[in-house]
Amino acid sequence: MFSYPQATRVFPYHSRGSIPNAYYYFPYDESGGIHSHDALEYNARHQFPSQQLTFVLVHGSWADAHFWDGVATELRKRGHIVYTPEYAGHGKDLNKNVTHAMITKSIVDYIKNWNLYDFVLVGHSFGGTVIQKVAEQVPDRIKRLVFWDAFVLKDGESLADAFPTQMRQGFEQLRATSKDDTIMLPFPLFRDSFVNTATFEEAKRMYVDVTPEPAKPLFEKLNLKAFYELPTPKSYVYFYQDNALPQGDGYGWHPAMSSRLGQFRLIVGDGDHFTDTRTRPAMIAQKFYEAGRD
Which residues pair with 183 in a beta bridge? Predict the structure, then answer.
């Protein structure tokens, strides 16, 4: 998205040296109704080992950096360092006339500005396409790529190309009715496809945070030749009940998207596309650890 607002990189510490190990990037205040409960899959058999990791978490469409609040908190509790950069066209950036390259630049600039190395780069949903392009630009800084129910595009493909025909046509219609080239999710679609395991009340609360998504980056075809030459280790985290991308006929998260990575580590969980970041962040944190550890 277009020029990334500098104000969102303001930190509450006077220098980087004063940032505590458990600090994670958070561009706004810490208010908000994040629900944090112990995950059903997180118990005494799933304790975090002592290896400390650094995570950079990249959100997807119809979300912003707040998406990671609960997950980042759970990772911090266990001694990991977590950054959640915001990218152009999202969060406080109201300019929706942006491109995929602008989004990528937001993340690359953030990584370079904070001189980050040896980190696990996680992309969720649309964020998978972002970390593909980020990895091309800073491959020497990345320890491992983790795709969580994320798009893995082929060279020359757009995200919209990875949609089933009916789904693509639906998004094209939503784009056509927009006055600013964005796509807004209707609540029935959000409820059935993104938060299908949530209660109706939880779904309504989460829908309040959904904002129109810039349409252009979803339809841009990406040159990914360099990505497919990278030796960077890769993992794919797949949640069984994630219905945001319908399964079948060569579509879906796993194995349709995951198999494009070549050799990869598969970590699975039981959840949907959005809900568990609010209701079971400890479970997601554990899955990310399993995906990112040595």
Answer: 213
Counting as low any pLDDT under 50, the low residues of the chain are: 1-45
Using alpha carbons only, what angle is made at residue 24 by residues 282 and 59, rounded to the nearest 5 degrees? 70
Q: What is the pLDDT of residue 88?
A: 98
The C-alpha angle with vertex 152 and arms to 149 and 153, in degrees rounded to 5, equals 145
Q: How many CB atoms lie within 10 A of CB 45?
A: 6
Asked if 89 and 102 touch (Cβ cutoff 8 Å), the reply is: yes
Q: Which of 271, 268, 244, 273 is nearest to 255 (CA)?
A: 268
Q: Which amino acid is at 246?
A: P
| Contacts (Cβ under 8 Å, ≥6 apart) of 89 | 1, 2, 95, 96, 98, 102, 103, 214, 217
Closest C-alpha among 287, 289, 283, 290 to residue 37? 283
Give CA–CA dist 21/6, Å, rounded.
24
Residue 235 CA to its chain's centroid (Å): 14
Neighbouring C-beta atoms of residue 49, cutoff 10 Å = 9
d(CA 14, CA 19): 9
Digit-coded pLDDT (tens) for 222-267: 999 999 999 999 999 999 999 999 998 889 999 999 999 999 999 9
The two structure tokens encoding residue 254: 């796993």
